[in-house]
Amino acid sequence: MRTKSLPLVVLLAHVMLLGPARAPAQQQPSPTQVTAVRAGKLIDVDHSRVLTSQIILIRGGKIDAVGANLAIPAGAITIDLSNSTVLPGLIDCHTHLADGSQQGNIDPIYQLKHTAAEMALESVPNARVFLESGFTTVRDVGVYRALTDIALRDAIAKGYIVGPRMFVAGAYVTVSGGAGAMTGFAPDITLPWDLRYGEANSPWEVRQKIRLLAAAGADHIKILSSGAVLTHGSNPQSQEFTPEELAAAVDEAKHFGLRVASHAHSPEGIKNAIRAGVASVEHASLIDDEGIALAKARGTYLDMDIYDEECIQEEGKNGSMTADFLEHDRNLGETHRQNFTKALHAGVKLSFGTDAGVCPYDRSVNQFAFMVKYGMTPMQAIQSATTSAADLLGKSEILGSIAPGKYADVIAVTGDPLADIRTIEHVNFVMKEGKIYKQPK
Ligand SMILES: [Zn+2]
Q1: For labelling alongside 368, which of 48, 344, 359, 439 has CA 20 to 30 A away?
Q2: What phi, psi does 17 have (nearest 5°)?
Q3: Which residues surround ligand 1, an ion (CB under 5 A)?
Q4: CA 141 to centroid of ligand 1, rounded, Å
Q5: pLDDT tens, 132-180?
């Protein structure tokens, strides 16, 4: 953006010839402009209840007041959602929006055939689709091409492109050849720096990578403490990193005020991560009773992506998923879902995370119905993607519910998601920070 250096006379000529310059795509309403949303029903996730005939007053991208009898100031823009159910914007705590097209997520070798610029630009539609399906915030947990997620986050924040508010990891912190590493190519191939950015093989290497990531602008650290499903040569049952390395990660991240999310499928990988003090365990597919008790005792979130097995097996049926990935997945799927139910009944904190990118981006919303199928009430499922997700991010003061002082992230559906959770698969109104991105047609 170089307009700042244009001489005034050039700017004036520009305005006279072409009219006022077009507003940037995501210009926020002016700080003094008030917007009033009339909500027929409002899901109050903070108090597990539904309020009716509410008015939400919004100013400067934040919520000013919520109530049944608020006076709407003169000059306010009014949005009528009196026939809809209004909810806080959803938060997905496990996405991969910046790995390019979905193919880039499914098979990491795709990365070797595309430049970093291609990967970043291919990711632009992912962000839009995600926002339009109702997710106003994501916790993005890793990219193969290091730092493309930071570029995507900043492009959205600056209004160059449309997407959810992103919190990003910058890269995967992984052992060499591990679950977050690029694998599947000949050993005498040397990868470019950004495809091996997060590899670390000792506590001090872990600390060094975290220092680099913090300096590069990461919002949290993603480490991998077991093998993976979608990595060639990886065994989801294995453990990666030693307890000492994991403890170093949590300690070093803390120096920068960052939390750690650990990918883990295997029971030992999960428990090692919890004992090290991570904020969340991702997947937690094969968690055992001891792991569930530990998560409960330590207040560790489990971020269990129980829907995406549907997509992996579908890809298998149409031949676009490799045999080794299918084999990894087949053994995990049902156990994963049963363990979700166990963890729920044990009272473990559960956040909403889908591993978006494994399934197409517009299908993350489908996970709500699976969470209900496997034991949550619709209210609990919605809270996992609002209040709980905001808590996991450490952002409860600005995200997660429709309350004064928080960002005006507001979505709506026709119908009642508490009666039929699948109505949440059809979000028809999306506002992020006071700006509308989708409206009922
Ligand atoms: Zn993932």
Answers
A1: 439
A2: -75, -40
A3: 355
A4: 6
A5: 999 999 999 999 999 999 999 999 999 999 999 999 999 999 999 898 8
